[in-house]
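User: Hello, can you help with two protein structures?

Assistant: Certainly.
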Amino acid sequence: RMVQEALSNVIKHASASSIRLAGREEGGQLHIVVEDDGRGFDVSRKLEERQGLGLTGFHERAKLLGGVIEIKSIPGEGTTWMLKVPTLQKQAHE
């Protein structure tokens, strides 16, 4: 669901000409990257202005799964979303 939402945000807001989606499993964690070459934005400013409620939701969902999400964006250059969550096998052993 988080990947779907990230892709939806790119389509709605980024005016990107390309999107890269990559995923891999490593050391009991699933790593997913969504990267675009769109308009970008100031992440901290969006969070401070409370316009980033969707961004807050990403962080909360990742935390609920025992993971983390990092969002890097540069205005005029694009955005990268990096999600790391434990795999189900890793969760079962804990």
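That covers the first. Now for the second protein you mentioned:
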Amino acid sequence: MVQFFWLAVVFALSGLAGTAAAQQTLDQVHKRGRLECGVSPIAPGFSYLDSQGRRRGFDVDLCRAVAAAIFADDTKVDFVPLDTNIRYEALRSTRVDVLIAQATWTFTRDTRLGLDFGPVVFHDGQGIMARSDLAAADDINALAGAAVCLLPGTTSEQNLEDYLRTRSLKYEPVVFQNADEWRNAFLSGRCDAVSADRSILVSVRAMANEPEKFAILSKTISKEPLAPVVRANDSSWRDIISWVVFALLAAEEKGITTENLQDHAHSSDPETRRLLGETGNFGSMLSLSDRWAFNVLRLVGNYGQIFDRHFGPGSTMPLPRGPNKLTRDGGYLYAPPFR
């Protein structure tokens, strides 16, 4: 009986230690009074500076949503631009608290880098853009011997190598250290083609002085599930990031927007009441205010609002929503139950 007692004490203390370790990132964010969010330096639609020098974009709004959940203030966030070759090390070294920078969730990144991924926030796929003369026939064989601009630290290099090798097509990879060099090299003609996520290719083409000189081939050569990234072994922090994303999706599923939020706060739907902090004390389970999701939706909006803001018909970079629709609309996205 005595031995059992001491074993119980050891397990209890271990549990407390695990809980304390899991709180580490959230405690640091609270102590600092701001969220440090890693983003892409320049990625139109996702992360860019507007004419007033303010950072905007889909990923930027997700950072703001996390800040809103923690502080009830979406301005308490610093956006840290990170090139692809240093972004994961910046997260591991605690330079940033979370990385929301078009990062593809892959097996090796999940298991070997000391990182964990949150839910997929954007389903993309890798494509190829080339000079219009090369792309005219929409034939991948036209890239035989072509110089292709690539970025380090991305999935694009390996994806392109795998895809072309199986077709016995040789090409010349030209790797640049940051997105500015990579994009400018292609647009200035130093490379015949460029390969990246299709959303990125659309943004690069939109930045060209003469976009008609470039065309995106119809073939998609990979799956690119883009997700937020956190340090491994901090499950409480990962829960916060994950459920902020799920709150954005759940709100869209239920038709809750920034404009009608107050009306839904008095809903008779039990799940809506739990989501918005009216019942259930769900916030305390995340070490947040029970109004955390209400604050996210009040300050940032639901997933559909964020998507339309940056990729909708009236945006500077319109994209079809496609797989990023809710499952009820034929897409891949949905929220687990709030219960």
